[in-house]
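Note on ligand handling. Small-molecule inputs were canonicalized before submission; formal charges were left as drawn, and no protonation-state enumeration was performed. Where a ligand contained multiple stereocentres, the stereochemistry in the source SMILES was retained. For coenzyme A, this procedure yielded the string shown in the input block below.
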Amino acid sequence: MPEQFLPDPVMPRPARSMKERMLAGEPYLASDDELGELGLRAQDLADDYNATRSRDGSERRRLLGELLGSVGEGVEIRPPFRVDYGFNIRIGARTFANWGLVAADVAAITIGEDVQIGPNVQLLTPTHPVEPEPRRQKWEAARPITIGDNVWLGGGVIVLPGVTIGENTVVGAGSVVVRDLPANVVAVGNPASVIRTI
Ligand SMILES: CC(C)(COP(=O)(O)OP(=O)(O)OC[C@H]1O[C@@H](n2cnc3c(N)ncnc32)[C@H](O)[C@@H]1OP(=O)(O)O)[C@@H](O)C(=O)NCCC(=O)NCCS
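Structure output:
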């Protein structure tokens, strides 16, 4: 098993929960009772959210507040919206996400203010071992994603674990962001690369 996915030595540290390991960005097993229950809670709330009608803004707002770590004023997320846990997601004021946002929040996902997110964007914090054996044993880990203020992610953008995108940056439709992007640029493609500054 590669060192990155080895569990900590049992002694002398007291055993930590899989949730604590997950939040520390260390290898953990998702098939844990506590995480299982937190995941089910999030799926229940997301199911309720996704069943709301567009004209029922106050119920959407209430459910988002219950589901997410924090939500700024005027945030709009069009269903369907999927998360792993919800409590790891913070969204700044006036941010808009179109249909089909997948925010896999095993690690923190921080989305700034006035961000525009196109349809079917995926923010993917989890990562599985590339080596076959620890992956078979279901070890996984995650790295946080940060989206700066006033970023625009075009439709179908995929953001990989550990990526930070600087404020005002535009990412073209269908791009896969594999490493950090600076502020005030336009980036496109797979892997996304900067084509110009703004
Ligand atoms: C990135 C974008 C904003 C255009 O930016 P722009 O600075 O005006 O770029 P241009 O149209 O001048 O294109 C510049 C180059 O990037 C390429 N390009 C543009 N968008 C691209 C994309 N999404 N993927 C790959 N390449 C792209 C162009 O083909 C062009 O290449 P070339 O110089 O070899 O001809 C736009 O192409 C885009 O992807 N918009 C997203 C639309 C969307 O998702 N809408 C849903 C609502 S949120």
